[in-house]
Write a structure and sequence with these properties.
This protein is mainly β. It has no helices and eleven strands. It is globular and about 40 Å long.
Length: about 120
């Protein structure tokens, strides 16, 4: 059984930075895609960023140039560095790990961008 535990959320002022971490335990293969999704109040969950085992990255247009996703395959951990945060980045951020036939989600960590 795979478990994903997110950390690093919190309250930050507009223009500030946060770094999210997600530690995966269980049967994680380096070929799996790791990523971050987010869900703002009253909205559907959406992609923020993903990264493949070989390091290919994909970003939502709304976060390009501000967010950077990275992973440590040896530690089964994925990170999301978020800079120049905006109030519209306020959301619960969910860690995701998926393979060909499996799809795992963390419980989420809240990011609030407000002055």
């Amino acid at each position: 059984q795979v478990q994903l535990v997110e950390s690093g959320g919190g309250l930050v002022q507009p223009g500030g930075s946060l770094r999210l971490s997600c530690a995966a335990s269980g049967s994680i293969q380096s070929s799996m895609v790791m990523g971050w999704y987010r869900q703002a109040p009253g909205k559907e969950r959406e992609l923020a960023a993903t990264i493949t085992g070989s390091g290919s990255r994909n970003y939502a247009d709304s976060v390009k140039g501000r967010f950077t996703i990275s992973r440590d395959n040896a530690k089964n951990t994925v990170f999301l560095q978020m800079n120049s945060l905006k109030p519209e980045d306020t959301a619960v951020y969910y860690c995701n790990v998926r393979g060909r036939i499996v799809n795992y989600w963390g419980k989420g960590t809240l990011v609030t961008v407000s002055s």
